[in-house]
Design a protein that fits this description.
The protein is α+β, with helices and mostly antiparallel strands. It is built from seven helices and five strands; from the N terminus they run H-E-E-H-H-H-H-H-E-E-H-E. It has a five-stranded antiparallel sheet. Strand 1 and strand 2 form a beta hairpin.
């Protein structure tokens, strides 16, 4: 795998474009490394193209997984990694449901993408997640409003392994320069906030089983 949580700075994934685009991405990797907050660049599948040291540090305690490491595909990490809730606070409502909403939009726009279709099949294999996706998600969006599923500007809880941060929050900032946008990439930064949150009991050791979603119950 090209990226892992923790470790040394990695080279950008190969960019299927011209030499100028490849050089831009290499240079942008150096720029991203200077950003103090966790920051990453993803494609429409949420495959991670670039990630900085702060991002890898945030997920340094995540255990191995064959398909859902945070530095490989952030969508799959949020949905399928059993350790996701140990870093992403209030995982189900604050991270999983918004990500499912973005996934539904990606499937609508890129319906024939084989990677997205593989994720869709994996969702279908989990009865509770399938119920959340097909039945609970539309109801949840109507209840909380479309703004709740947007990443840019959202404030979401985090459980940072660095005790200087600990149980805190981040504001997600989506800031994509034109050149990256033209390549089909999106950059997200998790701007850590100084405001501390009291640790919730359910946040501690929130390792999941396969059927992990409780926000939406399984169909009868």
């Amino acid at each position: 795998m090209a990226f892992q949580a923790g470790g040394q700075r990695s080279a950008p994934r190969p960019v299927p474009a011209g030499c100028d685009d490849q050089a831009y991405v290499r240079d942008y990797a150096g720029y991203l490394e200077a950003v103090p907050f966790p920051s990453l660049v993803v494609d429409h599948r949420w495959d991670v193209v670039l990630a900085n040291s702060a991002f890898r540090s945030l997920f340094r305690g995540i255990g191995p997984h064959p398909t859902a490491m945070p530095g490989d595909n952030f969508l799959r990490f949020v949905l399928f990694h059993p350790d996701a809730g140990t870093v992403l606070g209030e995982h189900e409502s604050s991270w999983c449901l918004p990500m499912l909403a973005h996934f539904a939009d990606a499937v609508e726009r890129h319906g024939h993408d084989h990677v997205l279709q593989a994720v869709r099949r994996e969702i279908a294999q989990d009865p509770i997640m399938e119920a959340a996706y097909r039945q609970g998600l539309p109801h949840w969006i109507r209840a909380v409003g479309k703004g709740a599923v947007e990443h840019d500007g959202a404030v979401r809880p985090l459980l940072h392994p660095d005790p200087r941060w600990g149980s805190t929050e981040c504001r997600i900032v989506v800031e994509t320069p034109r050149t990256l946008r033209d390549m089909g990439y999106t950059r997200l930064t998790l701007a850590l906030r100084e405001t501390r949150r009291a640790p919730a009991a359910r946040d501690r050791g929130a390792r999941r089983t396969a059927a992990h979603l409780r926000v939406v119950g399984a169909p009868e």
